[in-house]
Design goal:
With 120 residues, this protein is α/β, with parallel strands linked by helices. 14% of the residues lie in helices and 28% in strands. A five-stranded mixed β-sheet has the order 1-2-5-4-3, covered by helices on one side. The structure holds zinc ion.
């Protein structure tokens, strides 16, 4: 059974991503893919961010590339930005065949919410 690609809007870092994800997912700050985490207070910041990044990579591997192939996009660059009190992981993706690039955004504000203020 072939599943239709879905536009991913929100996912918990412990949750299994859908098998096929539209490459239109998370293409702007306003439509960023929201990552959530049910982690106890005091959770190690590096560890929880790493878990979130692993989830982001898993999502990219399940994304239908702009050219139509599953998991085809390469990650060219990864960075973290802050905008209006929210934190985002930004991934720059590239189709190795057609060469076109695009950017996807993950809202990781919730993931980092338990991290003590002085560590941020
Ligand atoms: Zn491609």
């Amino acid at each position: 059974m072939t599943k239709e690609p879905v536009v991913l809007k929100r996912i918990d870092i412990e949750e299994e991503p859908p098998e096929k994800i539209c490459h239109e997912s998370g293409t702007s700050l306003e439509n960023a893919i929201v990552l959530t985490a049910n982690q106890p207070p005091g959770t190690n910041k590096m560890l929880i961010h790493l878990t979130a990044i692993q989830k982001e990579y898993q999502i990219v591997h399940r994304m239908i590339c702009a050219c139509g192939k599953l998991g085809h996009a390469q990650i060219m660059m990864q960075m973290m930005i802050e905008k209006q009190g929210k934190k985002y992981d930004v991934l720059k993706l590239r189709c190795p065949e057609k060469g076109n690039t695009w950017t996807i955004y993950f809202d990781i504000t919730d993931v980092l919410k338990h991290v003590p203020q002085e560590e941020q």
